Automatic annotation (TrEMBL):
Its EC number is 1.2.4.1. Residues 32-67, 358-379 are annotated as: Disordered. It comes from Cladophialophora immunda. GO terms for biological process: pyruvate decarboxylation to acetyl-CoA. Its cofactor is thiamine diphosphate. This is Pyruvate dehydrogenase E1 component subunit alpha. It catalyses: N(6)-[(R)-lipoyl]-L-lysyl-[protein] + pyruvate + H(+) = N(6)-[(R)-S(8)-acetyldihydrolipoyl]-L-lysyl-[protein] + CO2. GO terms for molecular function: pyruvate dehydrogenase (acetyl-transferring) activity. Residues 369-379 have a biased composition (Basic and acidic residues). The pyruvate dehydrogenase complex catalyzes the overall conversion of pyruvate to acetyl-CoA and CO(2). Keywords: Oxidoreductase, Pyruvate, Thiamine pyrophosphate. The keyword Oxidoreductase applies. InterPro entries: DH_E1, PDH_E1_Alpha_Subunit, Pyrv_DH_E1_asu_subgrp-y, THDP-binding. It is an enzyme of class 1 (oxidoreductase).
Amino acid sequence: MLSRACLRGFGLQSLPKRQAYQLARRTVTTDAASSHAEKDDVPEEDDKPFPVKLSDESFETYNLDPPPYTMETTKKELKQMYYDMVAIRRMEMAADRLYKEKKIRGFCHLSTGQEAVAVGIEHAITRNDAVITAYRCHGFALMRGGTVKSIIGELLGRREGIAYGKGGSMHMFAPNFYGGNGIVGAQVPVGAGIAFAHQYTGSKTATVTLYGDGASNQGQVFEAFNMAKLWNLPVLFGCENNKYGMGTSAARSSALTEYYKRGQYIPGLKINAMDVLAVKAAVQYGKEYTASDKGPLVFEYVTYRYGGHSMSDPGTTYRTREEIQRMRSTNDPIAGLKQKILDWGVCTEDELKQIDKKAREDVDGEVAEAEKMPPPDPTEKILFEDIYVRGSEPAYIRGRTPDETYYY
Ligand SMILES: Cc1ncc(C[n+]2csc(CCOP(=O)(O)OP(=O)(O)O)c2C)c(N)n1
Ligand SMILES: [Mg+2]
């Protein structure tokens, strides 16, 4: 959306309108503090709505009208969003430490830097909407109602973990959260299937189906797009473009890096996903779109991962330390929201420090509890439990060798 004033700012007001728009068209910003509110509009009350204006550079559209650039929020919501992002980051930091202490083993992918995606989405949907994602899933599990204790417990392989300690980092589930999926792209058709179920039952709910820039080139992604458009399914496909798939940059893996256009016949929206408010506005808009039976959308959440692909990747061989440092120091989603909260007088610096402290203490307390949970007994019963839904087990199941057959 470019206003006349904006065109003047670019010195393009004398050009024919269409040409001027094309020249002035900039890419979506990743400035996390790009939205604006008038201090005078911010009310005393914690739960009274006030308007926020999103930056002109929050979105780019493909065959779609952009979401409204003005949205409403409350002081309460902004503080909650801040708490949520700090809690996710603190939890990921705990996972990082426990991994380095060799208490967490196997695969472990952290989402530090990408917190605004999980938080912005959750603030736009209800618990009846569904979310499905890939293996970088700890933050989503927390937002969907998992506890820090159950998530860290899962990473530690404890029975009280969110998947009874058998899923680990990549396989976490919660009500209306369908994982945590380790096979790149596999969750995309499953997401379309969940949306089909929603359509079939007439629930008017949406399914947020996330995948990475690396996954975006998979054939099954396009098969899912086709079915979703053909049947007008209420699904919000969303490419979390964190610029890399393992050690390969988006530009080296994708012939077209404008992931929001990859649905071809499905309208798309590119979003500044370092700004949690832009994410919320986009998903709210997408949810209304699907609820009015207009079919699927393809979103691109522009974000950045600070750490390596997984705990075994230092993350600095295929990108420069300066690039990471620049994103951390100038585009951080938590620092961006913090700045807005202070600029708009939502609360004082002291109050914000209290929120920070509470989030850290809450997370640290639950992590300590998770560490105290006992590891499972090494019994066959526990090993073979939870392969089937409890109560639906067959008479027996074979192990690796005939003598390992387990009878339920
Ligand atoms: C079908 C399949 N192929 C390859 C892999 C190995 N692999 C794991 S993650 C990954 C990169 C995916 O990158 P992206 O989709 O951008 O997600 P991100 O890690 O950036 O969140 C690959 C190739 C896999 N798990 N599944
Ligand atoms: Mg990626």
